């Protein structure tokens, strides 16, 4: 019986897939930057806060409005986002 790792390696060889090694976390491509942070910031846009406690309360409220389904949708869109970054050679594009 093949080990799981050997079975995956055999599949990669058979289909001609290239294994791309990368760190588990890249500060250039933080998943939170693409979906979670914009969702959190949107309700706060244009508001001027007078005190730090006001800011903390508003941020807490904003975070609580993000549903599990909304977060999952953002995660599912990440492969498309990563492909866009590769396609644009890492250049920043507004609204993408």
Automatic annotation (TrEMBL):
Family matches, as InterPro entries: RNaseH_sf, Transposase-MT_Hybrid
Gene Ontology molecular function, alphabetical: nucleic acid binding
Gene3D superfamilies listed in its UniProt record: Ribonuclease H-like superfamily/Ribonuclease H
PANTHER family per the UniProt record, alphabetical: MARINER MOS1 TRANSPOSASE-LIKE PROTEIN
The name this protein goes by in its record: Tc1-like transposase DDE domain-containing protein
């Amino acid at each position: 019986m093949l080990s799981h790792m050997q079975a995956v390696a055999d599949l990669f060889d058979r289909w001609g897939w290239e294994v791309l090694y990368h760190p588990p976390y890249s500060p250039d491509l933080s998943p939170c930057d693409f979906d979670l942070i914009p969702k959190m910031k949107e309700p706060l846009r244009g508001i001027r806060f007078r005190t730090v406690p006001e800011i903390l309360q508003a941020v807490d409220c904003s975070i609580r409005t993000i549903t599990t389904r909304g977060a999952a949708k953002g995660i599912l869109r990440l492969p498309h986002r990563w492909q866009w970054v590769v396609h644009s050679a890492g250049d920043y594009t507004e609204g993408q």
